[in-house]
Write a structure and sequence with these properties.
The complex is a heterodimer. By secondary structure, chain A is an alpha+beta fold. Chain A has helices at 83-100, 104-111, 133-138, 149-158, 176-184, 211-226, 239-254, 262-275, 321-336, 410-425, 429-432; strands spanning 2-6, 16-22, 29-30, 35-40, 45-49, 54-59, 66-68, 72-77, 229-237, 281-284, 289-292, 298-303, 308-309, 312-313, 350-353, 373-377, 381-387, 390-404. In chain A, strands 9, 12, 13, 14, 15, 16, 17 and 18 form an eight-stranded mixed β-sheet that branches. The longest helix of chain A is centred in the first third of the chain and has 18 residues, at 83-100. Chain A is globular and about 85 Å long. Chain B is of the alpha/beta class. Helices cover 32% and strands 22% of the residues of chain B. Chain B is built from twelve helices and 19 strands. In chain B, strands 1, 2, 3, 4, 5, 6, 13 and 14 form an eight-stranded mixed β-sheet that branches. In chain B, α1 (12-23) packs parallel to α7 (286-301), α3 (45-60) runs antiparallel to α4 and α3 runs parallel beside α5 (175-186). The model of chain B has no long low-confidence stretch (mean pLDDT 94). Classes of the chains: A alpha+beta, B alpha/beta.
């Protein structure tokens, strides 16, 4: 019994991928879950695991070749699977294919072997903003919207996420009309409203959006639609921080670790989150629940050539400044090599975006929905400050924070930001507190 | 003594509303001046279908020898009309008793008498006045008198006939006249169908069905003409209907055609008075009246805010039967929907062959892009039952993909429906 394994759509609407490296040869035995090939897609570089035990009977495509989703990757000869068992196996395959006609959730589940544990949203964290990573892990893609077949087909056609649409049919079933209204209201096409259609010409260049850009756009909109954004700004005098950093900079360098201000900011934020857990929570409005997380996973927004990525530092509250510095170095290296995986981007509970390194001062960052807040770090600058009634030079670090006002009130936000400023203004508190 | 709701008329709209009202805890009375069950149960839907079955059976005996049944002397065959009526009334009695039982069981009080609406909350019946928070008018409709014609048999006269007439003229167009004309024709009565619009005998039906039935009636020897034949031919009035209005003191708006004007919630111009069923002129179909009845009560109770009767079947009990649901092809053209048509004949179907009746077709109209099933028409011996499947597909906004992959049992006539869905995907197996 031979199983033809086709290149699965490991993310929503993925069209193609490039073969970077084959791990298996013809005639080689593989086990289910074992990596077959390293593929580069619009979003990630990832290993594709084998869905079955068996022997590789055929391999399609050479390294560097781009193949389409649905093209065969390998044929796996499954030993001893004959007769009824073979029929069962072929049914599994058929079901896998059949489910493609339906929803994305089922697609991810049926075909991808070990990847399925990452769930439907697994592809999304790559482009970060607004992805319910935690939610994905807790309830992996079990939730299937109740919708009519035509509504599903139309949602696909109009690129509407059917789970976002409120159904008005019997039993809150999503009807065709609901999808049409949702699309018309601009939830997906907001950017198209009132926009003049331009034709390509000498003055206009038109390019298809990359998958990553689409995902970013979708997630940003999702955040802006669902969260009640509120922002606060402040500045902290960071001369002490500068002093400590310069004391340890060279010492770290000897171990080949680059020490920036970011580990201090992450540490300060993580500690402040432990004291103000509401900023480390999310809201499940539908079920009337608040979800508080006892772990602190901080996402770091990274500007790459391809677009925004948000790798996550797990359990940041338990790491030392040195460990954090190492983590940041790793992330930077991975980003440079385009090796940030879906695994690296999952389960963030709060996000830090550091636009100061590029030169920005203040911004109104967009929350990484459904997280409760995001902290933006601006460029540190020398400014006159008043100390002991005298004007002296100070080093001011600008902080911009957006929160979901549904979750947290202004007073608590201010207290939280004050706490971070206390840590950064006098970093000794980071170890004494 | 004050009621939450009084319903006038116990036809399929009124009695269903009453039972529903009882279920949701409204103190309810229903007033009927003639027979519980109204036109549908007592003279319309049910007894006519029973008579049509007799006529079909009678005709079928002609095929007995072919089916291997011997000993039937076709020359001696005769149709005993009063006996067929008696059988029809056994069915009717069973059903009306059932309705009376259900009304009682759900705590609805039945008052026999003629009602008059004397105030917005007051009804006079049998010389007493009763009060109600809400009133539902469900008094139905009757054919309009034929202008200048004396005899004017109405459908109720059918059941009093001692024997079949030599000839009969059925007056008017619409499903009832077509069904009755065919019934008499099948029983060997020389039949005329008097109408000005032979091309659209059933105005709401797809032209495909109208073309089919016109040809069928003509081939069966029914004379379709504009004028009444000679004075000797009795005339059965089955023309389109006019509202039966109870006496109403408060001013209630009527439509230009004399039906009770209602808004989308089926409220009249007096908001605590509703009108459901034929009397509001929205439809003359029993099942639509019933659905309106359930909605009106839900609206009174605040359970349902807007009427959402998306689509309902139109059944015509001809031989063969015809049924449709959803959009007609003409409506799709008017709405500029891009559609495609797929048809499969019953003549390819094994079960239809074993039954010796392969006249018919299943026709699916689907939207081109997403494949949504937009409309279905079925002609065939059991079309009026087969349409239920199509109704579910349309209610659920299903596509031809769903039709094609729904496994249908073999052998059944319904397989043709699945096959038509496959044909829409260019994957018909038996084509």
């Amino acid at each position: 019994m031979r199983h033809i394994f086709k290149f699965p759509d490991i993310g929503e609407g993925l069209d193609e991928g490039t073969i970077l490296e084959w791990y298996v040869k013809k005639g080689q035995s593989v086990e289910a879950g074992e990596s077959l090939v390293k593929m580069e897609t619009d979003k990630v570089v990832t290993d594709i695991p084998s869905p079955r035990d068996g022997v590789i009977a055929a391999r399609y495509g050479s390294e560097g070749e781009t193949i389409n989703v649905g093209d065969p990757l390998v044929e796996i000869e499954m030993e001893g699977v004959e007769g009824e068992a073979a029929q069962e196996e072929s049914k599994k395959i058929d079901e896998g294919e059949a489910s493609k006609m339906e929803t994305v959730e089922e697609e991810a589940a049926g075909v991808v072997g070990t990847l399925e544990s990452a769930g439907n949203n697994a592809f999304l964290p790559a482009s970060d903003e607004g992805v319910s990573v935690a939610e994905t892990n807790e309830k992996p893609s079990q939730k299937k919207a109740i919708a009519t077949p035509v509504a599903r087909a139309l949602a696909k056609e109009l690129n509407v996420d059917i789970n976002e649409v409120k159904g008005t049919g019997p039993g809150a079933r999503v009807m065709k009309e609901d999808i049409q209204k949702y699309a018309d209201s601009g939830s997906t096409n907001a950017s198209n409203q009132g926009r003049r259609m331009l034709d390509e010409g000498p003055r206009v260049r038109i390019e298809p959006m990359s998958q990553m850009r689409k995902t970013i756009a979708k997630n940003m909109l999702r955040s802006k639609h669902n969260a009640a954004h509120m922002s606060v700004f402040d500045e902290v005098e960071a001369s002490e921080l500068i002093a400590i950093r310069s004391r340890f900079k060279d010492k770290f360098k000897a171990d080949d670790i680059k020490l920036s201000y970011l580990p201090f900011i992450i540490k300060a934020t993580a500690k402040a989150l432990k004291k103000h857990p509401v900023l480390n929570s999310e809201m499940d409005m539908e079920n009337g629940k608040m979800i508080y997380k006892n772990y602190v996973n901080i996402g770091i927004a990274v500007d790459t050539d391809d677009g925004l990525l948000v790798p996550v530092i797990q359990d940041a509250d338990r790491l030392s400044i040195r460990e954090l510095a190492v983590k940041i170095n790793e992330i930077a290296e991975k980003a440079r090599k385009r090796e940030i995986s879906m695994e690296d981007m999952k389960d963030g509970t709060f996000t830090i975006t550091s636009f100061g390194s590029i030169g920005g001062k203040f911004a109104v960052p967009v929350i990484n929905y459904p997280q409760a807040g995001i902290l933006g770090i601006g460029r540190m600058a020398k400014q006159p400050v008043v100390k002991n009634d005298a004007v002296v030079p100070g080093n001011m670090l600008p902080l911009s924070m957006s929160v979901d006002h549904r979750i947290v009130d202004g007073g608590e936000v201010t207290r939280f930001l004050n706490q971070i400023m206390e840590y950064l203004g006098d970093p000794i508190n980071l170890i004494m507190d | 003594m004050k009621y939450d709701l009084i319903i006038i008329g116990s036809g399929p709209a009124g009695y269903v509303a009453a039972i529903r009202a009882g279920q949701v805890g409204l103190k309810t009375a229903i007033i009927e001046k003639d027979a519980i069950g109204g036109m549908c149960l007592n003279w319309g839907c049910i007894p006519t279908k029973a008579l049509i079955e007799s006529a079909k059976f009678y005709n079928r005996l002609n095929d007995a020898a072919e089916f291997g049944i011997e000993g039937i002397d076709l020359k001696k065959l005769d149709f005993n009309w009063p006996k067929a009526v008696e059988r029809a009334y056994k069915v009717v009695n069973k059903l009306t008793n059932g309705v009376e039982f259900l009304l009682k069981k759900n705590g609805v009080e039945t008052i026999m008498g003629e009602a008059e609406i004397v105030g917005e909350h007051e009804i006079s019946v049998n010389n007493r006045t009763i009060e109600a928070e809400n009133i539902i008018i469900a008094t139905g409709s009757l054919p309009e008198r034929i202008p200048g014609e004396g005899s004017n048999l109405d459908i109720r006269a059918l059941y009093k006939m001692k024997k079949l007439p030599e000839s009969i003229a059925v007056y008017g167009h619409g499903p009832v006249s077509v069904e009755l004309a065919q019934l008499f024709n099948l029983l060997g009565v020389k039949t005329y169908l008097i109408t000005e619009q032979e091309k659209t005998l059933i105005p709401q039906a797809d032209q495909f069905l109208n073309d089919f039935i016109l040809k069928k009636l003509k081939s069966q020897g029914i004379k379709i003409q504009k004028n009444l034949p000679s004075k000797d031919v009795p005339v059965l009035n089955a023309s389109l209907r006019k509202a039966i209005l109870p006496a109403i003191k408060p001013e209630i708006d009527l439509t230009d055609d004399g039906f009770v004007q209602t808004n989308l919630n089926l409220q009249t111009s007096v908001s605590n008075i509703y009108a459901i069923g034929d009397v509001n002129g929205r439809s003359y179909l029993a099942h639509v009246g019933s659905a309106q009845g359930v909605f009106a009560v839900n609206h009174i109770k605040g359970i349902e805010k807007r009427m959402d009767i998306r689509s309902y079947p139109l059944n015509i009990y001809t031989v063969p039967e015809m049924a449709q649901i959803g959009f007609t092809e003409q409506e799709l053209q008017e709405e500029n929907v891009e559609y495609k048509v797929n048809e499969m004949p019953l003549s390819i179907n094994g079960k239809a062959m074993t039954e010796g009746d392969t006249e018919g077709v299943v026709r699916i109209l689907s939207e081109k892009k997403l494949g949504e099933v937009m409309g279905v028409q079925i002609i065939g011996p059991n079309a009026t039952d087969m349409i239920a499947e199509a109704a579910a597909f349309i209610e659920m906004e299903a596509t031809i993909y769903d039709v094609a992959r729904t496994v249908h049992a073999h052998p059944t006539v319904s397989e043709v429906f699945m096959e038509t869905g496959m044909d829409a995907l260019d994957k018909a197996i038996h084509k």
